[in-house]
Amino acid sequence: MLTMNQNACLDDTNRSASAGAWPRRQYQQVDLVYDKAWKSLWTYMKPVGIPCFNQDMVEELHHVFHELEDHESQVLQEDGWQPVSYCVIASRRKGVFNLGGNLALFINLIREKNRDALVEYAKLCVDAMYPRIKGYGCATTTISLVQGDALGGGFEFALSSHIIVAEAGVKMGLPEIIFNLFPGMGAYSFLARRIGMRKTEEMMLSGNTYRAEELADMGIIDVVAPRGEGENAVRELIRKKNRYLNGMRSIYECRNHLWPITFEELREVALLWVDAALRISDRDLQMMTQLAVAQRSLHAKYEQSLLSEACPSGQLQVA
Fold this sequence. Notes:
Blueprint lengths: L1 E2 L26 E6 L4 E6 L9 H16 L3 E4 L2 E4 L2 E6 L4 E3 L4 H9 L3 H19 L1 H4 L2 E6 L2 E3 L1 H7 L3 E5 L3 E3 L13 H9 L1 H10 L2 E3 H6 L5 E3 L4 H12 L3 H14 L4 H15 L4 H29 L9
Parallel strand pairs: 3-6, 6-8, 7-9, 8-10, 9-11, 10-13
Antiparallel strand pairs: 1-2, 2-3, 4-5, 11-12
């Protein structure tokens, strides 16, 4: 397994102006690892700060996914362009896949009534995710590996893959209804095609979280792996499926023809989300603020656990 060149620059002079002004810097919140033996590209999220979809990380994911699409499911390695038969999305953050949208940003933009900025964020998320939904031109099988909690937009992102593998006991859900909103980055589109409209709306209106085992029983999760065995489960899945890769790709292409998720559909729903966000009350914003505080608290506990692992009790040196 080869670690990708993390010096890949996000400045692409060939990219159209509509893609926005890309940051002239290296990947900081995304790790790429290419497994040449199985032609698989592992994309790990490693967000700075709270494990949510901050705009910088979304921009990096956008660049990675559009590069794959632009180069017909190939990735550049030291020995040239290599094919990507499988693209796995996972997280470097222990215990968390992703907690969803940047609530602190949302709160500020809603209070400012800044529709343009909300639209920009929503469109960026949709633009980043869409190539993955299409399998980068139907040449790549996409896999989500969920080894920690996936809430809101984090759950939506996991749902965007052809195959979802989750470790036992991890929790997923759509809590947006708690602050009088709805998940606007694809949840309805993804879930309705897996479990139907009625069950999708029941899930969205409940605001509940579900264990991986429950979601597997509902037909949402494809594989439940033992705790700590998620990566091995994905590798074994790839090994077993690889013999039938052509047939599997064709089946997913049939899915896209029969139940297509269009770019326009996702964009329109995202704009509905923006308008709904601007209508919520001060009371709803207070609830969103409480959840943002909970996100920060969770992150603080994670940082403290890392410090404890690095400096076990009794070994902390004080200058």
